[in-house]
Structures are given as C-alpha cells and as structure tokens.
C-alpha cells in the first residue's frame, strides 16, 4: 500500500481525525452488506482509525489493516478483539475485504491499482467478496470542496483545533488538496492528499483483469448521486 498521508500518519493529526470526520452513519450500509453476505472472516483494508472495523459484528473474525501506525494506535483504543495490522504478510482466506472512504482512490497509477486488486484477490477465499466505494467523477465533488470554509472543533483531551481546507489542483483524473490544522499551542501542521477519480469503464476493466466478477453496483445510500458501491466476487 502507498505511503500514507500525514493526516493518517502523524500522531497529532491522527488524534484529531475522528472529531473532524464527524458522524459515520454511512457505515451502516456496510454492516448490512456483511449480514447479507454472511461474512465471518473480514478484512478492513485501509482501516484508518477503525471507525468501521470496530463496529463489525461481534463473533466475526476481523482484521484491520493500515500502513499508518498513528491511525492504528487510535484504532486499538476502540477494540481489543480486532487483529490490527500494518502488514498483510501471512494473511489469506477472507470471506470479505472492505475498502471504505477514500481508500480505493488513493492508488494513483494504473499499476498501483492493479497491484492492489490482485493483492486483495489473493487474500480472498474462492467465493469471497471485495466491497468498496468510489466517487463518481461526473458529480465533480471538487467543486463543492472548493467552497469549504475553515472550521474549529473541540477535540477531547486537546481543545479547540482549526481545520482549513484548500483545493490545490484539479488535473483529471487526479484531484489534490491540503488540510491545515492549527492547535491550541499554536502549532500548525499540514497534510497533502491526491485522489484518482476513475470512471465506470476503468473500474470495470480493472476489476475484470484482476479476476473479479462484479455482482452489483449500488448507489451509496447517504450520497446516491455522488458515489458507487461495488460488490465483487472472486469466482
């Protein structure tokens, strides 16, 4: 997996991430998918601070993977039963691999995306599923992002923290942006990110080339015009 952005990798930024991420009611749809598929052994690929991972059903064998150690430190405070990992070494046989949030869009090159899909294919048992979400480029989410204004939120144990968002470049299919955080002691930290907005043709082609069968493509229930949720099976 690619080197994580500072917003996930820097301990001070990881500590404020959940406060600014806000309510994650959108994750309920994934709990429904887990139930519908009858998945028991589940990998949350790019789990971040574990907002979804820690909510997966009790009794499931759950692994949370992320290369950002600072985010995993936060995740570990949410569940002592999840197997939190910063490596995929030795893993296999999953019923379900999940990628939520921006995870599927952080792989910027065709080679990186293909490698990720093949890796996940190898992690699944035959008949297992990959489920992920991705933004629809035709919605042009970056136009809304450009209107975002600075906001200050109270972070427990830290105090008031200001977040400032800047859209830095749109060179499709890549969109880049920067977060700047100002802490109560005056320290300012920044994190730069780039996402790739793949169209439906590229997504279908990449999944097929990696050996997946697309079983369903749904609209995200909280943002139906903006995002797709792919359900893919390893035959």
Automatic annotation (TrEMBL):
SUPFAM superfamilies, alphabetized: S-adenosyl-L-methionine-dependent methyltransferases (SSF53335)
Protein name: Methyltransferase domain-containing protein
The organism's taxonomic lineage, starting at the top: Bacteria, Bacillati, Actinomycetota, Actinomycetes, Micromonosporales
Organism: Actinoplanes philippinensis
The keyword Mitochondrion is annotated on this UniProt entry: no
GO biological process, one term: methylation
GO terms for MF: methyltransferase activity
Keywords: Methyltransferase, Transferase
Keyword field contains Methyltransferase: yes
């Amino acid at each position: 997996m690619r080197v994580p952005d500072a917003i996930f990798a820097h301990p001070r930024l990881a500590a404020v991430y959940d406060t600014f991420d806000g309510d994650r009611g959108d994750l309920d749809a994934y709990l429904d998918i887990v139930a519908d598929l009858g998945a028991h052994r589940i990998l949350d690929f790019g789990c971040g601070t574990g907002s979804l991972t820690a909510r997966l059903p009790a009794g499931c064998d759950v692994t949370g993977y992320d290369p950002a150690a600072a985010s995993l430190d936060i995740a570990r405070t949410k569940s002592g039963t999840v197997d939190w990992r910063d490596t995929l070494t030795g893993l296999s046989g999953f019923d379900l691999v999940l990628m939520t949030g921006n995870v599927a869009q952080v792989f910027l090159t065709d080679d990186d995306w293909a490698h990720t899909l093949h890796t996940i294919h190898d992690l699944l048992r035959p008949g297992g599923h990959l489920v992920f979400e991705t933004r629809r480029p035709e919605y042009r989410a970056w136009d809304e992002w450009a209107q975002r204004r600075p906001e200050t939120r109270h972070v427990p144990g830290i105090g008031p923290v200001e977040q400032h968002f800047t859209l830095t470049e749109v060179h499709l299919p890549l969109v880049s942006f920067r977060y700047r955080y100002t802490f109560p002691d005056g320290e300012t930290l920044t994190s730069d990110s780039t996402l790739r907005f793949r169209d439906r043709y590229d997504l279908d082609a990449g999944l097929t080339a990696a050996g997946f069968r697309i079983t369903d493509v749904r609209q995200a229930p909280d943002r139906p015009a903006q995002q797709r949720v792919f359900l893919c099976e390893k035959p």
